[in-house]
Design a protein that fits this description.
With about 270 residues, the chain is an alpha/beta fold. The protein folds into 2 domains: about 170 residues, Spore Coat Polysaccharide Biosynthesis Protein SpsA, Chain A, CATH 3.90.550; about 80 residues, no CATH class. It is about 40% helix and about 20% strand. The strands form 2 sheets. Strands 1, 2, 3, 4, 5, 6, 7, 8, 11 and 12 form a 10-stranded mixed beta sheet that branches. Helix 1 links the parallel strand 1 and strand 2. Helix 5 packs parallel to helix 8. It starts with 12 loop residues before the first strand and ends with a helix. The relative contact order is 0.12.
Length: about 270
């Protein structure tokens, strides 16, 4: 049983949602953001009616060039927010608005924080994922940020730096619902889209390619997904997701190798 939706707070909150061809998701996403006094949509060149639909639903629409992942578009929207506190989600995510009071109380208790990370529940279709890396119990995402304190990152799977970010656990608040994919094929397509950015991301973290490092990381991922995160108990979907994540780990090491080669080649050409 969910708690009633909190009454409007004295704290004014903006919402930022980056979109790309996701008009069909906006109604449900925006419904969970109706406590926000400002709604900003950052459209990344959609060819559908995402911008028109967002405006019809009362959002202020900004434009940003399309990126492989929405970090920069999200950060651009946050910088344009009228209010200091911002809730930011993707169109395929549903914010747990019935537990907004938990967020507001934390901000009241610790007003100097830069952001709040909450639990994150992945779905394929309408089925929650409960095994593999994507079904891990400690999955979380930064969704509430202070416009002037949060530090953004340009790298894939690393939207914000951890400085000043507080984490809430599942016993504290219900998770952000992420209707992430419609099928396993969709999962693979998403991973392929992210891969080209992984080399630079790994390099920025201080990693350098070696075949031994790649082998160790791939083995650790397989062990973690199949055993620690119970992929082996998840039936065909659990096995498939664990295999996809293991493949992704090996491929991102190859992307790191390619990035290092490109960086070295550019340095030699100068």
């Amino acid at each position: 049983m969910t708690s009633p939706v909190p009454q409007p707070s004295a704290l004014q909150i903006s919402a930022v949602v980056p979109v790309y061809n996701e008009a069909h998701l906006l109604d449900r996403c925006f419904e969970r953001l109706d406590f926000c006094s400002e709604l900003i949509v950052v459209d990344q060149g959609s060819s559908d009616d995402s911008a028109i639909k967002a405006q019809a639903l009362g959002a202020k629409v900004l434009t940003h060039q399309l990126e492989r992942y929405p970090n920069l578009a999200r950060q651009f929207g946050i910088s344009k927010a009228s209010h200091q506190w911002v809730v930011t989600v993707d169109p395929d995510e549903l914010f747990p608005r019935d537990q907004l009071r938990v967020i507001l109380d934390l901000i009241d208790e610790q007003p100097e924080i830069a952001g709040i990370r909450i639990p994150w529940q992945y779905y394929i279709g309408n089925r929650p994922i409960t095994t593999s890396f994507w079904g891990r119990r400690d999955a979380s995402k930064v969704v509430v940020v202070h416009r002037d304190r949060i530090k953004g990152s340009p790298y894939v799977h690393k939207e914000f730096l951890p400085d000043g970010v507080i984490r809430l656990n599942r016993q504290d608040i219900a998770p952000l619902e992420h209707y992430w994919a419609t099928s396993l094929g969709d999962v693979i397509a998403k991973q392929r889209r992210y891969l080209p950015a992984e080399g630079e991301r790994r390099h920025s973290d201080g990693l350098r390619f070696s075949w031994l490092g790649a082998a160790r990381a791939t083995f650790r991922t397989a062990r973690s997904d199949f055993f620690h995160h119970r992929g082996w108990r998840g039936g065909p979907t659990g096995w498939a997701l664990s295999s996809i994540h293991t493949w992704y780990t090996f491929r991102r090491w190859l992307e790191l190798r390619a990035y290092q080669d490109q960086t070295r080649s550019r340095a030699e050409d100068r």
